[in-house]
């Protein structure tokens, strides 16, 4: 940077100038040291997990196993994406597992037993999710009921409702030939499409980055520099193209995973680039300050809970499609914990005000890799529960330590 | 919608019989207060006199139990902070009310972001720098979270935020409490500039020097009630007497003791 004129935001002599590639790297190390870990725990976690499991069972890294892993990851991923929204506010929803089970039961009963058209059954299940979320939001706003308690009671109530509507048979098989089940089990993208989609993010990064740079330069603000942008885009494209190539050695990239990633991108846009997203961060950071700035805190609360429960319902519908059945077991067991653990491992704080949509995507890959690896080792579910529980505990400890470090480094 | 600014000397804000009860405690009782355009009114009083409560009532944070508020000649109900902000009542709260996890730009524009569906970060950042320059703020980077700023820097951010929406009246609750010498002078200059633009200013301060330096009128509250209106040339003795409610008080006794020692 050889600006003859000082940029508007570079006037202060106390500010270190992190310019170019070395500056970006230095900034990254500084952030990690001060407790702003970002994606680091996920990358470390994935490397450790794949090394361990592939030594124990080489099938783990086989392309088709990874394709299956992505199918499974997507279903819980939707739930986790909703969890990111409520965690962002410093709230929690413990009933997402039950909600997903209820949605899958509704799908089975309405579609198979009552013969409703599929879209209507899906809409009804999603609508039920929205209503449940609305109820949590109202309980929090009107009665100040902590979401921990309201959703814990929701966990039981929704599970009861699920068992009730399934009735004595307990499980309903969904037709294998239907588009929904094929979407949940079989449909993969054609090769050309998956490669195009793998290249697109890098291109978008460069195009949007160049536009932002031009605007910032026009406004006399500093820019991070072209080299950083190009290196980021190149790394991203290389990683994505390699992943797609490897998955295409097997069955290919599941459409369901594509839908999940699309929703993650949409949520990321909403959280980072809209007024609603800014309000989410503000309410999570300091809800009284947000209220005094004129933000409608109640509406933000309701929106987060509605989104969370609706996404949980979507996850339930798709996991029913994945298993081709609606059963009493749907949404029970470790679904709740996996969804919450994924969000936390991905870097969304339990304490509110910090997080990103990508944490659902990255976290669920870690969680599903563990679950998949343990299944391949033929371990009983008792051991699987204990190990997943341990991983969640570690994730929360890392979150707490990182938070303490951030506080002492003045990063909140 | 922000109403038109009344002519200089016309009342912007008129409070009649405003009371606020917190359970059995009456924090404000029957408060009358007028703020005119182009006037700086200082609100002084001891701890617990009801100054901050009054500011919070006007900011829409607390709802008054009784009384009427007229804003630019119209009776208004300040039922939420956003109503107050939309009318053009801006407040710098004593606890600043900033979100520590957000950066300076996000805090300045909180609740009033440019382009709600596609946040215009560049325009917001430029506006932030201009505003902070006007206040002679010493903030190294507007892209750092507020948690990394010092107390004085945070106070400057809070003041800058109150100016952002082009308000009709600004209320500052202890605006200089955490500020250094230069920043305090800057804030006092700023208050004068705001007054010269014909806006109304309410300032709460324990610092009598600051109060005298800028205030056109000094309104004393005591135990939640009006306890006299003074001008900047009122003697310190009279002011302290009105604040504490007695000519014989710890401040006067201390001064008398010092006098004796000197004699």
Automatic annotation (TrEMBL), chain A:
Organism phylogeny: Bacteria, Pseudomonadati, Pseudomonadota, Alphaproteobacteria, Rhodobacterales
Location in or out of the cell: Cell membrane
InterPro entries in the record: ABC_transp_permease (IPR001851)
Keywords, comma-separated and alphabetical: Cell inner membrane, Cell membrane, Membrane, Sugar transport, Transmembrane, Transmembrane helix, Transport
GO CC entries: plasma membrane
Transmembrane segments: 37-60, 66-89, 120-140, 152-172, 192-214, 226-247, 253-271, 300-323, 360-377
CDD domains for the chain: TM_PBP1_transp_AraH_like
Primary location: membrane
Coiled-coil stretches noted in the UniProt entry, renumbered to this chain: none
Name of this protein: Xylose transport system permease protein XylH
Task performed by this protein: Part of the binding-protein-dependent transport system for D-xylose. Probably responsible for the translocation of the substrate across the membrane.
Keyword Lipoprotein in record: no
GO molecular function: transmembrane transporter activity
Membrane topology: Multi-pass membrane protein
UniProtKB/TrEMBL annotation, chain B:
PROSITE patterns, alphabetized: ABC_TRANSPORTER_2 (PS50893)
All copies of domain ABC transporter, residue ranges: 13-248
Stored CDD domains: ABC_Carb_Monos_I (cd03216)
Keywords: ATP-binding, Nucleotide-binding
GO molecular function term, any single one: ATP hydrolysis activity
Name of this chain's protein: Monosaccharide ABC transporter ATP-binding protein (CUT2 family)
